[in-house]
Write a structure and sequence with these properties.
The protein is mostly helical. It has one domain. It has three helices and no strands. Helix 1 crosses helix 2. The N and C termini lie far apart (about 55 Å). The model has no long low-confidence stretch (mean pLDDT about 95).
Length: about 80
């Protein structure tokens, strides 16, 4: 894949690759794409969590049950 960039963006990418220690501008762009993929995955997880059913309230009773299950070896 080849990507055409205007001179100003090419200069920026080259500068970032150099100053941030990447071996090439391609490595820098690959890292940006990976970060974008991670950001999108996190967004999907957050949206799925927001749309999911409400779970148990995490309060003092929750932690007390959790401690009991850990010390007894049985799930709470």
């Amino acid at each position: 894949m080849n990507v055409s960039l205007p001179t100003s963006l090419k200069d920026y990418v080259d500068e970032q690759a150099t100053t941030r220690g990447y071996g090439s501008s391609s490595e820098y762009v690959r890292e940006l794409i990976r970060r974008d993929q991670e950001r999108n995955r996190l967004r999907q997880l957050l949206l799925a969590g927001a749309e999911s059913a409400t779970g148990r309230t995490v309060d003092a009773a929750y932690f007390a049950d959790l401690r009991r299950s850990i010390t007894s070896g049985r799930p709470g």
